[in-house]
Amino acid sequence: MNIVGKKVLLTGGSAGIGKALAFQLQAGGADVTVTGRNVQRLAELRTQGFGAIEADLSNAQGVDALIAEWGKKDLDILINNAGMGVETNYAEGKVDPDDADACFYANLSAPARLTGGLLRWLRKRPEASIVFVTSGLALAPSKDAAVYCATKAGLRSFAFSLRAQFKNEPVHVIEALPPMVDTQMTSAYDVSKMSPEHCAGDILDAIKRNKAEVHIGQTRLLRFVQGISPSLARRIMLNL
């Protein structure tokens, strides 16, 4: 896809991977609108030429408000990037059910509801792209993020089904699977992390090339191991 002049709606675009991707899309000639919850960050992005919509995507009301705010504007690319992480170790009693519900909604229900609500505008375009930012953890889960891993695996499955549904239409469904990226969500982890700019660059390349999937950084190795032995990939990620 040639992104010049394309209308883009990018959720979770005020920080991290989303913000880096927003600037790269804009530099490539796209007309980008981002969503987020931080009013100050959104105001700053408006001064830099972005459209910006305050949106809380952890509940149905927030998603529906975003759909209503978008209205009947043209839309070429929808990037479902917004998400949240939550620590859930049931064996140790580290579970807040409300946080878990919000994570399920933000990471899985919201992308599905938003896609459904905006699909009629995407289908009006000569070609369109729907991007889902999942995770390497959609391939094999980790031990201490049971709910987060489940949401990303569910979103990966949703992307597979949606891609099959649109196989005869010029609506490209793209899944991006990042590794650990240096963002606010991962700040507590003292491990090697990919820069948001590097990750965003790979996602943008996938959009331009209409790729079905893009495994980014170390996720490529995880995908290779999974292809050989899914059970081995799970054991590695679960430290079994």
Overview of the molecule:
- The chain has 240 residues and is α/β, with parallel strands linked by helices.
- It has one domain: NAD(P)-binding Rossmann-like Domain (Rossmann fold, 3-Layer(aba) Sandwich).
- It has 8 helices and 7 strands; from the N terminus they run E-H-E-H-E-H-E-H-E-H-E-H-E-H-H.
- The chain has a 7-stranded parallel β-sheet, with helices on both faces.
- The protein is globular, with a radius of gyration of 17 Å.
- The model has no long low-confidence stretch (mean pLDDT 92).
Brief summary of the model shown:
With 240 residues, this protein is an alpha/beta fold. It is built from eight helices and seven strands; from the N terminus they run βαβαβαβαβαβαβαα.
Helix proportion range = 40-55%
Label the CATH architecture. 3-Layer(aba) Sandwich
Share of residues in strands = 5-15%
Order of helices and strands: EHEHEHEHEHEHEHH
How many DSSP H or I helices? Answer: 8
Radius of gyration: 17 Å
Overall pLDDT = 92
Low-confidence stretches: none
